């Protein structure tokens, strides 16, 4: 098997000693792209094994969704034997991913300061709640709590409702993505310097980073961002709109698209109305515009209208439930559903590389106690 067919990260050895979501998600992405990932769990296993139902053979789907392309073993780092086994693996690793509470590994004598001296090429990636210092430093972080603290909940939900948690662990997941970016940046820099470094992706920082365009709006004029339901805070119509059947989401980003929308629903004159002619005017007068649009769209079947709008160059979509989205023909065409032996199904890798595509080699819970021997390891 040539290097390209193994994946972009072939030869990179990753020791994933993290748990829950952000760290394991990072490890899974690295594994999808060819890294050899060993996941080390405590004797009782990662907590998310119990986060169900549903369960298969006693292991929750939550765990299954974050831990493919890894081989798993169990060690107790509070024991001398466990720490010794970890050190033997670190000696062969390029990357270590962890999300222990700040100070825990240091108390065991296996923190970054100690290990970086012994293994100077090691890239150490920590996923944390708030970082190690500062007013909230070293405190534990959880997705929903960070959504609340970073303003995400305050701008999510209906305009006349209360703050609402985003219905998926968006902060945990983007922190995992930021951890991947940090690891890749550090590996790239190591090609020049020959040295590893400490990488940190904090939930708090990642939550704040998601606030566009609300933060940009506030920085410019100081107006407190408000909930707008499905509607975009800056442009309109960028909203879920009622039709004669199912609602559709219309995402108009410029005057040309708005004119096309108006023609499709039989209101060409609306595009010339001074109240709606420009993007700024449409945003300011969105209440009136929504009434006019929905009154006309009541004569249309939602799915048929989506097809007509898309054909006319107007971004539009049906509002699908999760099961319909996962079974959509384009989902399958894009290879976004992965099936592996043993009944595993999961979301595929969203990043497509032409020569070194992602691959799916190990179903969750595949055992392993050492890195795979390789002559092309980046560290050895």
TrEMBL record:
<dbReference type="InterPro" id="IPR003673">
    <property type="entry name" value="CoA-Trfase_fam_III"/>
</dbReference>
<dbReference type="GO" id="GO:0008410">
    <property type="term" value="F:CoA-transferase activity"/>
</dbReference>
<dbReference type="InterPro" id="IPR044855">
    <property type="entry name" value="CoA-Trfase_III_dom3_sf"/>
</dbReference>
<protein>
    <submittedName>
        <fullName>Crotonobetainyl-CoA:carnitine CoA-transferase CaiB-like acyl-CoA transferase</fullName>
    </submittedName>
</protein>
<feature type="region of interest" description="Disordered">
    <location>
        <begin position="359"/>
        <end position="380"/>
    </location>
</feature>
<dbReference type="Pfam" id="PF02515">
    <property type="entry name" value="CoA_transf_3"/>
</dbReference>
<dbReference type="InterPro" id="IPR023606">
    <property type="entry name" value="CoA-Trfase_III_dom_1_sf"/>
</dbReference>
<dbReference type="InterPro" id="IPR050483">
    <property type="entry name" value="CoA-transferase_III_domain"/>
</dbReference>
<keyword id="KW-0808">Transferase</keyword>
């Amino acid at each position: 098997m040539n290097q390209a067919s193994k994946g972009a990260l072939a030869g990179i050895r990753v020791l994933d000693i993290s748990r829950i979501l952000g760290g394991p998600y990072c490890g899974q992405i690295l594994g999808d792209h060819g890294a050899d990932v060993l996941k080390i769990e405590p004797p009782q296993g990662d907590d998310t094994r119990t986060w169900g139902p549903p369960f298969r053979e006693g292991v929750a789907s939550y765990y299954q969704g974050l831990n493919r392309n890894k081989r798993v073993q169990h060690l107790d780092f509070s024991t001398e034997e466990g720490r010794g086994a970890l050190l033997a693996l670190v000696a062969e690793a390029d990357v270590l991913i962890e999300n222990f509470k700040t100070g825990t590994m240091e108390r065991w004598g296996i923190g970054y300061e100690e290990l970086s001296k012994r293994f100077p090429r090691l890239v150490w990636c920590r996923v944390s709640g708030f970082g190690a210092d500062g007013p909230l430093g070293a405190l534990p972080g959880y997705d929903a709590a960070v959504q609340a603290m970073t303003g995400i909940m305050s701008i999510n939900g209906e305009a006349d409702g209360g703050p609402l948690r985003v219905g998926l662990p968006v902060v945990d997941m983007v922190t995992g993505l930021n951890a991947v970016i940090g690891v890749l940046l550090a590996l790239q820099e190591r090609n020049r310097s020959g040295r590893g470094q400490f990488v940190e992706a904090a939930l708090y920082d990642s939550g704040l980073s998601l606030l566009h365009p609300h933060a940009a709006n506030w920085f410019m004029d100081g107006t407190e961002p408000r909930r707008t339901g499905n509607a975009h805070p800056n442009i309109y119509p960028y909203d879920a709109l009622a039709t004669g059947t199912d609602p559709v989401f219309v995402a108009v980003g410029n005057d040309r698209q708005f004119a096309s929308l108006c023609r499709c629903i039989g209101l060409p004159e609306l595009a010339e109305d001074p109240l709606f002619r420009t993007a700024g005017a449409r945003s300011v007068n969105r209440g009136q515009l929504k009434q006019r649009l929905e009154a006309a769209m009541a004569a249309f079947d939602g799915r048929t209208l989506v097809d007509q709008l898309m054909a006319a160059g107007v971004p539009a979509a049906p509002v699908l439930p999760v099961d319909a989205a996962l079974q959509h023909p384009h989902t399958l065409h894009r290879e976004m559903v992965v099936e592996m032996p043993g009944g595993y199904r999961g979301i595929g890798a969203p990043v497509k590389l032409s020569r070194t595509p992602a691959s799916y080699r190990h179903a969750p819970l595949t055992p392993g106690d050492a890195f795979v021997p390789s002559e092309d390891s980046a560290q050895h």
